């Protein structure tokens, strides 16, 4: 195994326990978390509002609008009834855990261990109701491309944009 495999999440070991390269993996996760926080810039609510407005503009067929501080997203039904949550493709997930580190809402958890003990456990969407509506930060952070989100147009009947 190479240091680069560990750093880029391509390690084939089932766990980092007892591995001499564990600090390399920890460094990667820390750097990834810092990078995502810097990209977010503002608070999580501001970021979600900007994405929601961009999605609404895409749904309406208009270009992206400038974010206004008085524009809010209102859910028309309880959160549990809105089908907005990630789906993980198990064949693509490499068990790196970047999604779990990034998601402050706690949507992801490690799945069952590999029966043969050869690979790390794949991650699963354990708490889909915790996912922030129109948040898709986990998609670009997934190194293997295993996370898929629903189309924003599919939830337009569940949300409303309110000027306050």
Automatic annotation (TrEMBL):
Record domain 4Fe-4S ferredoxin-type: where: 84-113, 121-152
InterPro entries: 4Fe4S_Fe-S-bd (IPR017896)
PROSITE patterns in the record: 4FE4S_FER_2
Top-level taxon in the UniProt lineage: Bacteria
Transmembrane segments: none
Pfam families the UniProt entry points to: Fer4_7
Protein name, UniProt field: Ferredoxin family protein
Originating species: Prosthecochloris vibrioformis
